[in-house]
Every structure is written in structure tokens, then in C-alpha cells.
Design goal:
By secondary structure, the chain is of the alpha+beta class. It has two domains: 318 residues, Bira Bifunctional Protein, Domain 2 (BirA Bifunctional Protein, domain 2, 2-Layer Sandwich), CATH 3.30.930; 90 residues, Anticodon-binding domain (Rossmann fold). It contains 16 helices and 17 strands. The chain has a nine-stranded mixed sheet, sandwiched between helices. Strands 14-13-15-16-17 form a five-stranded mixed sheet, sandwiched between helices. A three-stranded antiparallel sheet has the order 2-4-3, covered by helices on one side. A hairpin with a 5-residue loop joins strand 3 and strand 4. Helix 4 crosses helix 10. It is elongated. The two termini are 46 Å apart. The structure holds adenosine-5'-triphosphate and magnesium ion. The site of adenosine-5'-triphosphate has 17 residues, from strand 6, strand 11, strand 12 and helix 12.
């Protein structure tokens, strides 16, 4: 029997799972303070959900299969398209904007390596309807605040706007299919291949020059002014630049600069994003120290819903690559406190005190305190060793003599200190300690 796990998948043991839960909880809290609400969609979808817009070539990257009724299905590779589907069937009439977030696993048939798995988790959000530069700014602010709350250091938020390059290509009346190909090549970052392609399709000299210049533009706010000065009459490009400026102004109003010294913004007009449903603002967050898998977050505004045949409704969203985020936090030795299995371990010193021990245990549990009690009829010494092993913070020693006086002994496992406490006060006392 084959007992190894499938390639590109992982098991998570107690400590790692505790760390992941803590990060999950922090992200949930931040997203909820921005009025996002959680949703969940199926782990598998109809294959067509992902091929409609991304084309058949995406199938190479998918875990697709036929079910017993010959339906073409696939494990989901991302969660934006499922959310768009969910919106189309349940929420088209709801007041806008709709703010949703999700946390769940995605599956891609990729070559596994550090930071790249076949099952990985995304924590992301979508804001549907009411997309404005202000909404884009709020979403970037939320991504940034999430990372600040987690204490991540040394990350860069790169922001771009696809309206600039797309506007340029549209003004030059470049064929739609060529436009798509150009975006793919920009995303790949292969300038030479891009140059060859531009030659091949006879792109005019001016457009070629401006395009090659734009995709190299990276830096502070001055970039937008520099570009504006070089573009005089291309209305679509100028409109995109205006929108970009408004976004940056609103980021400032939201006070993102105040979160801390960690947040570093870079205007990067070379961002194209792989999927072709992105339309306006795009952003990616990098932790350069992670090397090839440095991208921990990606997002932007998109028009997927129109592509699915819905009404035109501006949307924007992003997803953290949860595993890469964990990798970055652990790499930086961020203290992700692991609570251990129980805060309190109730240890009967003799068999006679077992009934009372169970009673005390339930009192603590009813008060919401994670509590473990010996179930193995073990000797007292063995119980202490085990309590220590699972990382219990306190042990309650329940002894016959103590009980006669109405007391138990509370042992602090870190310091070794012991104190006597009236049985009737245990819950109040423990609540103050943890
Ligand atoms: P990459 O270029 O690294 O493959 P991507 O452009 O395919 O990323 P997105 O589709 O934007 O990534 O997914 C959002 C985030 O999910 C990424 O920024 C990344 O952090 C994470 N991610 C993507 N693919 C994987 C994977 N196979 N394993 C782990 N995390 C992943
Ligand atoms: Mg990828």
C-alpha cells in the first residue's frame, strides 16, 4: 500500500497548525474591521468556469477530472472566478458594493518547490460594485494593514495600472489578440521576446518606444508626472494616469504611510498580472528575501463578471498566498505564539481525587478555559511529565489532604511556583492568569 502523500502536498502538525490559525485569525479580524464578510465556495467547480476567460491552455495547470456522470470538473486553482459565479447567481440585485472575503485551499498542477505547492491556501477578498480609485486605495490599505498587524518586515507593495498600457495599445488600434499576447509577454518579464513580437506584428515606432519605456518605469510618484509629460494626446492613457493619481492621493488620505516604517510603496508600470481579466489597478506584494517565490500577494481590478455575461460591474480584489506569507513570517522568526494543547492540566494525585478532578475540569471548560485532565489512570509523576510535554501552562494538583481543607494546588509550569487556592475560586483565579 502506498502511504506517502501526493507530490506537492503537506501535512501540518500541531505547532505549525497553531501558527497558521493565529495568522488566519489576525487576517480575519483586519478584514472584518473593513466590513468584509466571509464566504465559502466549493473545492471543485465546472471546468468551464476557469476556461471561459483564461482559455484552454489553463487546463495544463489544473487538477481536472470527469465524475461518474462524465461531467468535466476541476479542483479550483483560485477563488476569484468562483466568487464571480456566486455573485452572478445570488447577489446581482444586492446593494453595492459587496465586500466578501475567503480562506481556502487551491490546487494547481505545478512543479513543486519551496513556496510552490500543488495544494496551497489563499486568503483573499473581492469588492464587487462601486469600484473607484478610492475603493482600490482602500483595498491596498487593507492588505498593507494586514501585514503590519502580523509584523511582517521588508515587504514592498508594487502598484501598477493596466489602463496605461492597454490605453496605449487601443489608441494605436492594436488587434485584441495581439494586445493579449503583449500583456502575457510583459507579465513574463521577457523584454527581448516582447521586442521580437512587436516587430513581428509591425508595431509603429512611437508606440513601441513608449511601451518599452513604460514597462521599465518603477519608482515614486514622480513617475506618473514623467509619463504624463511624454504623452500628449492619448486620452485613454491620460485617463488611466489621472485615476492612478487619485488612487495614490487616497492612499495618503487613508494614512497608509502612518502604519509603520515597514510599508514600502513602489509604482511599477511593468506589472501585467497573468490572468487577462484584470483591467485597471493591479498590485503585487513582494518579500524580496524569499527569492523566486517572493510574491506573497496579488490583486487588482477586473471585469470578470461582464466576461461571464453579467452586467458591467467594476470589481477589485486580491489574495494572499497564505503559505508564502507563513514562510515569510517564519523566516523572520516572528513570534507566532503556539498555545499548546491545553492551558491547564488537572492532575489527580491519587485515585480517590479523580471524581473531584473531573468536576474541576468541567468547571474550567465551561468557563472557556482549555483544560486537559488525566484519563489514563496514570501515576502522578507520569501525569506531570506528560503535562509538561504538551506545553500546559499550569497544572492543578488535586490531593486528598488539600481537598479536606477545600483547596487545590496550582503549579506554574514555567517557574515551578506553587500556590494553594480554594476550590471554589479556581475559575476566577485562573481567568486572571491566562
Ligand atoms: P506565481 O507567479 O508565483 O506562480 P501567480 O501569479 O500564479 O504566482 P496568483 O494566481 O496571483 O499567483 O495567486 C495569488 C498568490 O497565491 C500568489 O501571489 C502566491 O503568493 C500564491 N501562489 C500562487 N501559486 C502558488 C503555489 N503553487 N503554491 C503556493 N502559493 C502559490
Ligand atoms: Mg503561478
Amino acid at each position: 500500500m502506498e502511504l506517502s502523500k501526493p507530490r506537492g502536498t503537506r501535512d501540518f502538525l500541531f505547532e505549525e497548525m497553531n501558527q497558521r490559525k493565529q495568522v488566519e485569525a489576525t487576517l480575519k479580524k483586519v478584514f472584518e474591521t473593513y466590513a468584509y464578510q466571509e464566504i465559502k465556495t466549493p473545492l471543485f467547480e465546472n471546468l468551464s468556469l476557469f476556461t471561459i476567460k483564461s482559455g484552454e491552455q489553463i487546463v495544463e495547470q489544473l487538477y481536472n477530472f470527469k465524475d461518474k456522470n462524465e461531467r468535466e470538473l476541476t479542483l479550483r486553482p483560485e477563488i476569484t472566478a468562483p466568487v464571480a459565479r456566486l455573485y452572478m447567481s445570488n447577489m446581482q440585485k444586492s446593494p453595492k458594493p459587496i465586500k466578501m472575503y475567503y480562506y481556502g485551499s487551491c490546487f494547481r498542477y505545478e512543479r513543486p518547490q519551496k513556496g510552490r505547492y500543488r495544494q496551497f491556501w489563499q486568503f483573499g477578498c473581492e469588492l464587487i460594485g462601486g469600484k473607484t480609485p478610492e475603493a482600490d486605495a482602500e483595498i491596498i490599505t487593507m492588505a498593507s494593514q494586514s501585514l503590519e498587524k502580523l509584523g511582517l518586515e521588508g515587504y514592498e507593495i508594487h502598484i501598477g495600472h493596466l489602463g496605461i498600457v492597454r490605453g496605449l495599445l487601443k489608441e494605436a488600434q492594436v488587434e485584441e489578440s495581439h494586445q493579449e499576447q503583449i500583456m502575457v509577454l510583459i507579465d513574463k518579464g521577457d523584454v527581448e521576446e516582447l521586442q521580437n513580437f512587436l516587430k513581428e506584428v509591425d508595431m509603429d515606432y512611437e508606440t513601441t518606444n513608449i511601451l518599452l519605456m513604460i514597462i521599465e518605469m518603477k519608482g515614486g510618484c514622480e513617475i506618473l508626472d514623467n509619463l504624463r509629460a511624454k504623452i500628449n494626446d492619448k486620452k485613454m492613457v491620460l485617463d488611466a494616469l489621472d485615476e492612478f493619481s487619485q488612487l495614490l492621493k487616497t492612499l495618503n488620505d487613508f494614512g497608509v504611510g502612518d502604519f509603520g516604517r515597514n510599508t514600502k510603496f513602489v509604482i511599477n508600470l511593468g506589472i501585467a498580472r497573468g490572468l487577462d481579466y484584470y483591467s485597471g489597478m493591479v498590485f503585487e506584494i513582494y518579500v524580496p528575501k524569499l527569492g523566486a517565490q517572493k510574491q506573497i500577494c496579488g490583486g487588482g481590478s477586473y471585469n470578470l463578471i461582464e466576461n461571464f455575461g453579467g452586467e458591467k460591474v467594476g470589481s477589485t480584489g486580491f489574495a494572499f498566498g497564505f503559505d508564502r506569507l507563513m514562510g515569510a513570517l517564519i523566516h523572520q522568526n516572528k513570534e507566532l505564539k503556539s498555545d499548546g494543547a491545553a492551558n491547564i492540566f488537572v492532575a489527580p494525585i491519587s485515585n480517590a481525587t479523580r471524581p473531584k478532578s473531573f468536576e474541576i475540569t468541567q468547571k474550567l471548560r465551561n468557563a472557556g478555559i482549555s483544560t486537559e485532565v488525566d484519563l489514563g489512570r496514570r501515576k502522578f509523576k507520569k501525569i506531570l511529565t506528560y503535562a509538561n510535554h504538551i506545553g500546559a501552562r499550569y497544572v492543578i494538583l488535586v490531593g486528598e489532604k488539600d481537598l479536606l481543607e477545600g483547596n487545590i494546588t496550582l503549579k506554574n509550569m514555567e517557574t515551578g511556583d506553587q500556590e494553594e487556592i480554594p476550590v471554589d475560586n479556581i475559575v476566577e483565579h485562573v481567568l486572571k492568569l491566562i
